[in-house]
Known about the structure:
Blueprint: H1 11-29, E1 39-43, H2 51-64, E2 68-72, H3 73-79, E3 80-82, E4 88-90
Parallel strand pairs: 1-2
Antiparallel strand pairs: 3-4
Helix pairs in contact: 1-2
Amino acid sequence: REENTLPVNDADKNISSGIAAAAKLYSESQDDSSHPQAVMFVIQEGERNSFDQRWLEYNLFDAHQVVTLRRTLSQVAKNAILKDDNKLIID
């Protein structure tokens, strides 16, 4: 290894694999396929550090076909509906 090279860092791939595995387990536990499922990133208003989050989103979709949503907490409060079975429906 050359001294001037950076070490390989697959954190984005490893984290997205873990999120995808959790989403798959959740999806398999559900009987209802009437609503598409997605992973939601709850972000801060005016989020400026979205670069790490975007890499996770890209890896989730490209490697695992997991759809993601980005919503602020106020958007969730305004647009989400929590159903009687504790499923969250948004947009």
